[in-house]
C-alpha cells in the first residue's frame, strides 16, 4: 500500500495529523528523490484530438504528481501536426495554455480568431477560450506544451469541455464513439473498468450547462463603468479589467521580437513572465544559450523548473549531483535546488526553461544567485 494514497480504504485508520505530516513528508521526499532529473520524451501517438504524447511528468492532475519526474506542479506534453493531416479537435478549459512551436509553422484558433505562428514562437491562450491548432499544410508543425495545470486542479478549476474531435479520431482502448440517430458523432463513452470506474461515463461534445453561464458571462462582459468606492467594488471592477486585458493582448509572442540579454545566469531571452503583457499568467518561459565549453550561472529558487533541450548536449549539476542531457530531453529541477548547466558539445546549447508563476504570486518569486556565468563580467556586467 502506498502511504501517499490516503483515500484508499486501508489508510482510513485514524492516526493523528501531527504524526501524518512527518510520515507524508518523509515518503514524499523519498519518492521525489528516487525519480530521475533528466527524462527522454515519451513518444506521440494518435488520440481523439490528433497526434499527442502522454503527459511527460504524469497527467496534469494532482493524482499524478511525483510519478515520472520529481515534480509536484509541472508537466508537459507534445503535439504533432504532420503535413496534410486531418484537422485537430477543439476544446475549452479554464487553465490558460502556453504552446511553444518547436518545428514548422501553423495556426491557432481562439474563440473565432486565428493567430499564425512559426518555429520558436510562443502561443499564449487566455483562460476560458475554445482553442484549436493546426500546422501549415505543406510542412506541419510540432508543439511543446509546458503546463502548470495541477495548480488549477488544487484551486478547483480543472474543468475541461470537448467541442470537436479530430477529423479522424483514434479512440483509445476502453472507449467507443457515440452517434446520434442521424449517424452524427456526438461524443464517446468511457467503459466500466477504465481507471477503476464502476459505471461507464459518456463524454458528450459541447459546453457543460453548469459551467457555461460563467464562461458566457466572461465572453460578453463590457468595461467597468462604475465608481470604486470600497473594497468590494475593487473586485467588481477587477472582473471587468481581467476580461478587457485578455481581449486586448496578443496571443502570440514571436521569438524574433524578444531581445537576448546577458545576465548573471548567462545569455537569456525571455518569452513571458508575470510582468509581461500577456494573458498567460501562470508561466515564466525563457531561452538560455550556452556557448560551447561554457556554463550557466549557478542559482537557486523556490520554483520548480522544467527545461526542454532544444539544441546541444551537456549536463546539469543539482545540489552537487551530475545529470547528463542531450537534445530533446526534459530536465527537471525540483523546488529549492541549487543548479547549473554545462555545455559539453562543440556548438551552442539552447535550452527552453519554464517555471510556474504561482510561487511569485505567493511572495516566493525571487532568485538567489550563487555564481555568475563566466561571460557575464565581460558582456553584461
Ligand atoms: Fe487545451
Ligand atoms: Fe533556474
List keywords for this structure.
Jelly Rolls, 3 domains, seven-stranded antiparallel sheet, 381 residues, single chain, 16% helix, eleven-stranded antiparallel sheet, 26 strands, alpha+beta, globular, binds fe (ii) ion, 6 helices, 36% strand
Describe the structure.
The chain has helices at residues 17-34, 149-154, 209-220, 231-248, 358-361, 376-379; strands at residues 38-39, 45-46, 51-52, 75-81, 90-93, 98-110, 113-118, 122-124, 129-135, 141-147, 160-164, 175-179, 185-190, 201-204, 252-253, 261-263, 266-272, 283-290, 298-301, 305-311, 313-318, 321-326, 330-333, 339-343, 349-356, 367-371. It has 381 residues and is α+β, with helices and mostly antiparallel strands. Strands 2, 3, 4, 5, 6, 7, 8, 9, 10, 11 and 15 form an eleven-stranded antiparallel beta sheet that branches. Strands 1-23-20-25-18-17-16 form a seven-stranded antiparallel beta sheet. A three-stranded antiparallel beta sheet has the order 12-13-14, with no helix packed on it. Strand 16 and strand 17 form a beta hairpin. The longest helix has 18 residues, at 17-34. It is globular, with a radius of gyration of 22 Å. The termini are far apart. The mean pLDDT is 93. The structure holds fe (ii) ion (2 copies). One fe (ii) ion binds at residues 299, 301, 305, 339.
What is the averaged pLDDT score? Answer: 93
CATH architectural group of the largest domain: Sandwich
Distance between the termini: 54 Å
Low-confidence segments, ≥5 residues, pLDDT <50? none
Instruction: Give the % helix.
Output: 10-25%
Reported for the largest beta sheet, the result is: 11 strands, antiparallel
**CATH C-level label of the largest domain:** Mainly Beta
Care to count the β-strands?
26
CATH topology of the largest domain: Jelly Rolls
Structural class, judged by helices and strands? Answer: alpha+beta
- What is the helix tally? 6
